[in-house]
Amino acid sequence: DVDEVNYLGMVQSHPNWMVKRWIQRFGFDEAEKFCEFNNKRPILGLRVNKLKTTVEEVETYLNNKGIATRRGSSIDYFLTIKSMGRIYSDEYFKNGFFSVQDESAGLVSTLLDPKPGEFVIDLCAAPGGKTMHMAELMNNEGKIIAIEKYASRAKALENNLKRTEVKNAEVVYDSILNPETTLLKEELLGKADKILLDAPCSGLGVITKKPDIKLKRELEDIQKLQKLQMELINESAKYLKPGGVLVYSTCTTEPEENFDVIKDFLSKNSDFKIDSADRFLKNKKLLNAEGYIETFPFRNFMDGSFSIRLVKNN
To answer: Global pTM?
Structure first.
């Protein structure tokens, strides 16, 4: 008579508290698949910069280097590859023809659906993958304010924007929880057409790429992060104009950080409602019954993530 939690935790090198949650939620077999996937060599995702090149050109370039590619199941200008040595010194990367980004992260920007000419705020922007993607979707037209609290991360964000020749984004060193600039204190309130809040989270959807999460995270972190996430989404709503769109996203698979945050937000903000992701999503397997996008590594062969589109009443 084997203790399932201890057995799976030991065999798959995962902390017992994590394993216990997944067994309760998914059952033993799927929890085992989740842990097994987390221990595999990570799949690398690339987003082709369609402002500078084509998917076909990047595919040909990589194939000629002996690197097999596969197109994304939902977004065809995302590619997955097994591995690529010295990718950050690669000619095509340095010239901004592609960026390293998982398809699950690409779903977030396509769900926000920023249009050329719109005013968008990216609230937790570094290192800039979603900012760059939104700029591409906007054809470098309109305006993105990319907010980042930490100077070192903001610098990385600026370098990425420069590499990919993003013209319509401005980086602001600040935080909406303790704003220091008049821009966030006053000027931007109620002005944004669209807002992206890619919230800080436990990262339990990206353990394959960040295995130290298994060692660093504790159960209490989820409760602490939920409190921060609730504060951030409530503050972010103040910057949205009537009729505007707010997308909340994470790279975790845990309900407390995902839909529980949204349920709490909607209970306090009756002027917001869920706008189903259905029409923005090619792969309907990723659509939850509540209308949001939810991905799991062991089911969808991409990072674990959550994203939901909310609309503010006119």
So the answer is: 0.96
